[in-house]
Design a protein that fits this description.
The protein is α/β, with parallel strands linked by helices and about 230 residues long. About 30% of the residues lie in helices and about 30% in strands. One of its GO terms (molecular function) is ATP binding.
């Protein structure tokens, strides 16, 4: 088991009271599987992703990543855990305008202390895996929206994470490109043997995921696995 959320409760201040964003949520995601988390706006999807990414500490409950409990870890230890264990695909690619596609990925490895040549080779390997081998030296303004999102996905995989967290990856894409991105995430989840959580409000492209979890008013339900 690579990602294990157990009895997670998260609240936020709301005037004189507190608003419950997550209410005793439990979710286990095995390596090499993709769980889609769906629900209406404000249901708790983004909060769940933030807790799983260790960006927010819950009021109660435990987060375990690849056998490591995050309870009691310092800010520095959590940063190190994210760098080595977690890949995050943000809703907007937020690529650096002055860097090529390959350089967007290389920066991640260099922050981890890897040699430039090793980082370059890993970046080119990942760009090939997302179908962008011929776009390695292009900058963001030279890429389409779908291509930029593919760079975003490859960047999240640069340091070989065991957990991949994906936030609304199709929100800025048309139907065809959105379907292609979901297919790509599904394929890479299996190839990289990552435990993937995909947060989305769009059920259109979810026929190939391993499981769909639904969030309503901060509570999580887990129907049966999706038929392929």
């Amino acid at each position: 088991m690579s990602l294990d959320l157990t009895d997670i409760t998260l609240t936020y201040p709301d005037g004189d009271t507190r608003l419950t964003a997550l209410d005793r949520v439990s979710l286990k995601v095995p390596k090499g599987s993709l769980t889609a988390v769906v629900g209406p706006s404000g249901s708790g999807k983004s909060s769940l992703l933030a807790v799983a990414a260790t960006l927010i500490t819950p009021d109660a409950g435990t987060v375990t990543l690849d056998g490591t409990s995050t309870t009691g870890l310092s800010r520095g230890e959590l940063t190190d855990l994210r760098r080595h264990k977690i890949g995050i695909v943000f809703q907007q690619p937020n690529l650096i305008a002055s860097l090529t596609a390959a350089e967007q990925l290389q920066v991640m490895a260099q922050l981890d202390g890897r040699k430039p040549r090793t980082a370059r080779n890993r970046a080119l390997e990942l760009l090939e895996s997302v179908g962008l081998a011929d776009q390695a030296d292009r900058r963001p303004h030279q890429l389409s929206g779908g291509q930029r999102q593919r760079v975003n996905i490859a960047r999240a995989l640069m340091n070989g994470p065991t957990v991949l967290l994906v936030d609304e990856p199709t929100s800025a894409l048309d139907h065809e490109r959105g379907a292609a991105v979901i297919d790509l995430i599904t394929r890479l989840t299996h190839q990289q043997c990552a435990a993937t959580v995909l947060v989305t409000h769009d059920r259109t492209h979810l026929t190939a995921v391993d499981r769909i979890a639904e969030v309503h008013d901060g509570r999580l339900s887990l129907p049966a696995a999706v038929a392929t």
